[in-house]
């Protein structure tokens, strides 16, 4: 195996969640899912607790290619205690953060071709002093990119959505919106469609915030004061941008055919349509980074951890999209 070989780095997420189980199942079904070699990063005990497949402990990503057919390659991060599935602990939260840190470091150094992050519990991470809203902003910081210049995209077979605001109380959304933030997220989404998806002239549809996109100002002025100026600024740069669209009528099949991504104003406006249509195969991809980072759309699912109920398809889709995006980025000049 040539030393230039670069596997994908897959952090297991919270050891008490379903991350270890879905990663193990992805290795089981690697041929059916069409997955390239990847290395798991986390506590091997969290895998052994929920999955009876073979592990292949590696010390270096360059060992992954030859190990991959023998067992699931793992770069071991031992938690100070072994978590029980469904019972998150402080030690497990630290372990999930250490795994994320190592995975991002491998991608930044070029030892991994991309990062796929397993689900972490934000509540658990906040409890150990994690000061970022989510993994998206953590990865952005580690890559030296301002959180305002990255975008969280949720991608499925017939829909891609990007929330302008992410993890904050709904009551704070309107105050958090500004033309410059909407514009920056829109630009990150458009460039991401080019760089990660290979769409050369992408189309972005922008949602309104208020019912009926504000009804000409009668139902709210955010469209007039914040969203339309951002759309106009993006159009001035030559991007194909439409809106603001009433959010209730922009996700049916006919509407979805008119755009490559929808820019939404808040978390649930973006994630509800995506998960309603594509929960089993939805992927979260961070746009605007110097590295590729994806994740399954679901969370830790502590309620089903350790019961062999976790569906691995979203994790498989995240691994596949990470590999495809890394390839697009290696072959495109945008
Ligand atoms: N990328 C990440 O790290 C994400 C982390 N989270 C975190 O996950 C925790 C739990 O969040 P929830 O809102 O409850 O969402 P969740 O996705 O963990 O669970 C929602 C429901 O879907 C089910 N479910 C989720 N994934 C499944 C799978 N692969 N197969 C079968 N059933 C599945 C669960 O059992 C549960 O009933 C939160 O602390 C949140 O912060 C949530 C989303 C993404
Ligand atoms: N709801 C999406 C989500 O929680 C993912 O957040 P992140 O940890 O990937 O930033």
From TrEMBL:
<feature type="binding site">
    <location>
        <position position="136"/>
    </location>
    <ligand>
        <name>substrate</name>
    </ligand>
</feature>
<comment type="similarity">
    <text>Belongs to the PdxA family.</text>
</comment>
<feature type="binding site">
    <location>
        <position position="293"/>
    </location>
    <ligand>
        <name>substrate</name>
    </ligand>
</feature>
<protein>
    <recommendedName>
        <fullName>4-hydroxythreonine-4-phosphate dehydrogenase</fullName>
        <ecNumber>1.1.1.262</ecNumber>
    </recommendedName>
</protein>
<keyword id="KW-0521">NADP</keyword>
<feature type="binding site">
    <location>
        <position position="167"/>
    </location>
    <ligand>
        <name>a divalent metal cation</name>
    </ligand>
</feature>
<feature type="binding site">
    <location>
        <position position="212"/>
    </location>
    <ligand>
        <name>a divalent metal cation</name>
    </ligand>
</feature>
<keyword id="KW-0520">NAD</keyword>
<feature type="binding site">
    <location>
        <position position="275"/>
    </location>
    <ligand>
        <name>substrate</name>
    </ligand>
</feature>
<dbReference type="GO" id="GO:0050570">
    <property type="term" value="F:4-hydroxythreonine-4-phosphate dehydrogenase activity"/>
</dbReference>
<comment type="pathway">
    <text>Cofactor biosynthesis; pyridoxine 5'-phosphate biosynthesis; pyridoxine 5'-phosphate from D-erythrose 4-phosphate: step 4/5.</text>
</comment>
<dbReference type="InterPro" id="IPR037510">
    <property type="entry name" value="PdxA"/>
</dbReference>
<keyword id="KW-0664">Pyridoxine biosynthesis</keyword>
<dbReference type="Pfam" id="PF04166">
    <property type="entry name" value="PdxA"/>
</dbReference>
<keyword id="KW-0963">Cytoplasm</keyword>
<dbReference type="InterPro" id="IPR005255">
    <property type="entry name" value="PdxA_fam"/>
</dbReference>
<keyword id="KW-0460">Magnesium</keyword>
<keyword id="KW-0560">Oxidoreductase</keyword>
<keyword id="KW-0862">Zinc</keyword>
<feature type="binding site">
    <location>
        <position position="284"/>
    </location>
    <ligand>
        <name>substrate</name>
    </ligand>
</feature>
<comment type="function">
    <text>Catalyzes the NAD(P)-dependent oxidation of 4-(phosphooxy)-L-threonine (HTP) into 2-amino-3-oxo-4-(phosphooxy)butyric acid which spontaneously decarboxylates to form 3-amino-2-oxopropyl phosphate (AHAP).</text>
</comment>
<feature type="binding site">
    <location>
        <position position="267"/>
    </location>
    <ligand>
        <name>a divalent metal cation</name>
    </ligand>
</feature>
<comment type="subunit">
    <text>Homodimer.</text>
</comment>
<keyword id="KW-0170">Cobalt</keyword>
<keyword id="KW-0479">Metal-binding</keyword>
């Amino acid at each position: 195996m040539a030393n230039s070989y670069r596997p994908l780095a897959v952090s297991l997420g919270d050891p008490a969640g379903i991350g270890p189980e879905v990663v193990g199942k992805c290795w089981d079904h690697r041929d059916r899912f069409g997955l390239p070699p990847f290395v798991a990063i986390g506590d091997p005990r969290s895998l052994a607790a929920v999955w009876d497949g073979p592990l292949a402990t590696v010390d270096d990503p360059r060992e992954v290619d030859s190990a991959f057919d023998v067992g699931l390659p793992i770069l071991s991060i031992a938690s100070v205690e072994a978590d029980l599935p469904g019972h998150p602990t402080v030690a497990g939260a630290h372990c999930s953060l250490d795994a994320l840190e190592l995975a991002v470091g491998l991608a930044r150094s070029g030892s991994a071709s991309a990062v796929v992050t397993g689900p972490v519990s934000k509540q658990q991470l906040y409890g150990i002093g994690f000061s970022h809203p989510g993994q998206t902003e953590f990865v952005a910081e580690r890559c030296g990119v301002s959180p305002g210049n990255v975008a969280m995209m949720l991608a499925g077979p017939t829909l891609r959505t990007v929330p302008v605001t992410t993890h904050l109380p709904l009551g704070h959304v309107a105050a958090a919106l500004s033309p410059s933030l909407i514009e920056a997220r829109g630009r990150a989404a458009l460039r991401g469609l080019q760089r990660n998806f290979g769409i050369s002239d992408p189309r972005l549809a922008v949602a309104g915030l208020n019912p009926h996109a504000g009804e000409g100002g009668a139902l709210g002025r955010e469209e007039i004061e914040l969203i339309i100026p951002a759309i106009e600024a993006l159009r001035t740069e030559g991007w194909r941008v439409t809106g603001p669209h009433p959010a209730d009528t922009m996700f049916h099949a006919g509407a979805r055919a008119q755009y490559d991504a929808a820019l939404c104003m808040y978390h649930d406006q973006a994630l509800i349509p995506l998960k309603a249509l594509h929960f089993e195969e939805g992927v979260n991809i961070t746009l605007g980074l110097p590295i590729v980072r994806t994740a399954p759309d679901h969370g830790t699912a502590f309620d089903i951890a350790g019961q062999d109920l976790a569906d691995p398809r979203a994790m498989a889709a995240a691994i596949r999209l990470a590999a495809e995006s890394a390839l697009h980025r290696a072959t495109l000049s945008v």
